[in-house]
Amino acid sequence: MELNNSSLDYFTSNLTNTPATTTTTVPPWSESSLLALQVSLSVLLAVVTLASALSNAFVIATIFLTRKLHTPANFLIGSLAVTDLLVSILVMPISIVYTVTKTWSLGQIVCDIWLSSDITFCTASILHLCVIALDRYWAITDALEYSKRRTMGRAGVMVGVVWVISISISMPPLFWRQAKAHEELKECVVNTDQLSYTLYSTFGAFYVPTILLVILYGRIYVAARSRIFKMPASSGKRFTTAQLIQTSAGSSLCSLNSASHQEGHHHSTGGGSPLLVNSVKVKLADSVLERKRLCAARERKATKTLGIILGAFIVCWLPFFVDTLVMAMCEECWFDPVLFDIFTWLGYLNSLINPIIYTAFNDEFKQAFQKLIKFRRCS
């Protein structure tokens, strides 16, 4: 998301133009050193861009080709991967050239398209994290009711709202940039002199979503821990089937299938010796207990994954949006332009981190991804 400008000329200008009161002079960077710096920077940013594009493409392919992953929750994850892929192929390559050369030579139209794409896709990526957290929150706090409403159509509506908000944030700068269309364009940045728009865009794209994410994650964490602590202990007295079934009610992950219920009901009400009936009850109770242990492990892992995603998101985007907001509100404040470039690419890096987190911490994705790799190697 490009809302400001920096320049590699900073290196040469600060090294050659020293104050009059300074008695020592620092030799300017040689052309070969500056070229080596530009090449190294280009390679580094190109690697990040390529890795981001490939990882998101693999997530999309894994979801598309694996029928087991065709769920509303994974639809939201796939939509996030599509958004991050768009950042990788439509925003980051041009940003590499602009970050390294700091000379815009592609004209006003391409500049407008690039800036709009930058703001739209980065905002959509951030807002996708919100709808994924919201979906998870509803699933864990209102499992029985939400499971009936958790459909592909509902997920599609959530994604649609994300894109409407993202486009509404990226469009306003196009209206006041047209007045300068006839001038020679040397830089391509959003005009941060419009304080009202800066506040609107930064709060809409980052600060409000971040507050929402923190609140949702906090409630998810409390609900998950509450469930985990209610799990029956592995040692101690045997729990009856009725007790275990009752404690599992309301969980989106822990539920007995109808066959287990029918089997337990049949053996407990039908004829047979008390020893046989008790044996069946004990076996069923052990089965439910093991299922609840697996449920607890999944709850912990899902909550941990969401926490890592939230932490990575804040680390990647907070410096950029703090810088942008401070520079817009404080005319006397100054940030190192090179530091701003680092903040910008740190935000882009979030599009690479998201798919890595999902494939590394989600067993279903990991297994499906491994199967996809093996299939591609054999074919």
TrEMBL record:
Gene3D superfamilies: Rhodopsin 7-helix transmembrane proteins. The keyword Membrane applies. Residues 55-358 form the G-protein coupled receptors family 1 profile domain. It comes from the Eukaryota. Its main location: membrane. It is found in: Cell membrane. Keywords: Cell membrane, Disulfide bond, G-protein coupled receptor, Glycoprotein, Membrane, Receptor, Transducer, Transmembrane, Transmembrane helix. One of its GO terms (cellular component) is plasma membrane. The keyword Translocase does not apply. Coiled coil: none annotated. The chain crosses the membrane at residues 39-65, 77-101, 113-134, 155-176, 199-222, 302-322, 342-361. Belongs to the G-protein coupled receptor 1 family. This is 5-hydroxytryptamine receptor 1D.
